[in-house]
TrEMBL record, chain A:
BHLH domain boundaries: 129-178
Source species: Escallonia herrerae
GO MF: protein dimerization activity; transcription cis-regulatory region binding
GO cellular component: nucleus
Pfam family, one: IBH1_N
Keywords noted in UniProt: Nucleus, Transcription, Transcription regulation
Localization per record: Nucleus
Ranges for region Disordered: 1-48
Protein name: BHLH domain-containing protein
Automatic annotation (TrEMBL), chain B:
Organism field: Escallonia herrerae
The protein's name in its UniProt record: BHLH domain-containing protein
PROSITE patterns per UniProt: BHLH
Keyword Signal annotated: no
Intracellular or extracellular location(s): Nucleus
Key words of the record: Growth regulation, Nucleus, Transcription, Transcription regulation
Length: 207, 93
């Protein structure tokens, strides 16, 4: 379709606009200047992104029976359900461009498959290779810096076996997304608190 | 860590990451952590940046958990009245 010279120039220009169509980003081999320029992180700071997230979150929460039915579940369990919904909506908002978002979405699929099949055997199956060949239980005395890198890899979903530059890139995007999540959920809580109070007063006044 | 032979996801051209690259990435991360940004000191070690990053992510997780619990409590009152849901929707858009 395209001549080789054109496709070469597309690969070399790291414009953020093209990162949506570029599939080669995943291997990381096409980033000579550094991996951190491809993802546009500032969108997590925009007002519109936060509003879209808030409305999608409300929709998702209303659809989830675990979050909305108080009789069957205690509050901590429902809180957990809300947290998972919030994370999933956040991962969807990332549009699959980052590893952590894909990890969140696929981990839910795996969990649902396990529950439907009643199989607890595969719960810890990971993406990257055979888990038996890479037991993390080997206690090497890692230098403290590498130990911290490992902790960071555990905190960001799906990033345990990532190389250091990619891990930092994922962590940067994840932090920005988390900050937006906190802002959106705080605003939503404020909204609901404000909306609930006058209705309660009305109800008690009328009865 | 980066010298381990990994399958397909790692950078194929670079087997060892240079110290300069690490320092550069760490300084980029440094800009994001409010703890470090507000302290106005340029000489933060990489170890400190990583530590603060982990702490920051953990704090954010905890905030999301707390907010989730509060939302769970608030939502049980909201769903019983569809007028409230309409208000929320109109305020969000």
């Amino acid at each position: 379709m395209a001549s080789p010279s054109i496709s070469n120039s597309e690969a070399n220009s790291n414009r953020p606009r093209d990162s949506k169509r570029k599939k080669r980003r995943k291997t990381g081999a096409d980033a000579p200047t550094g991996p951190a320029t491809n993802i546009d992180r500032s969108r997590w700071k925009t007002e519109s992104e936060q509003q879209v997230y808030s409305s999608k979150l409300v929709d998702a929460l209303r659809r989830r029976p675990a979050a909305a039915s108080p009789e069957s579940f205690p509050v901590p369990v429902r809180g957990r359900a809300v947290r998972e919904t919030a994370d999933q909506v956040l991962a969807v908002a990332a549009k699959g461009r980052t590893r952590w978002s894909r990890a969140i979405l696929t981990s839910r699929l795996r969990l649902m498959n396990n529950l439907s099949r009643n199989h607890k055997k595969h719960r810890k199956v990971r993406f990257t290779g055979d888990i038996r060949s890479r037991k993390p239980a080997v206690r090497k005395t890692l230098p403290p810096l590498q130990r911290k890198v490992r902790v960071l890899g555990r905190l960001v979903p799906g990033c345990r076996k990532l190389s250091f530059p990619n891990l930092l890139e994922e962590a940067t995007d994840y932090i920005a997304a988390l900050e937006m999540q906190v802002r959106a959920m705080t605003a939503l809580t404020g909204l609901l608190t404000g909306a609930a109070a006058p209705f309660d007063r009305l109800g008690s006044g009328l009865s | 860590m980066s010298s381990r032979r990994s399958r397909s996801r790692q950078q194929s051209g670079v087997s060892r990451i240079s110290d300069d690259q690490i320092a550069d990435l760490v300084s980029k991360l440094q800009q994001l952590i409010p703890e470090i940004r507000n302290r106005r000191s340029d000489k933060v070690s990489a170890s400190k940046v990583l530590q603060e990053t982990c702490n920051y992510i953990r704090n954010l997780h905890r905030e999301v958990d707390d907010l989730s619990e509060r939302l769970a409590e608030l939502l049980e009152n909201t769903d019983s009245d569809s007028a409230q849901a309409a208000i929320i929707r109109s305020l969000l858009m």
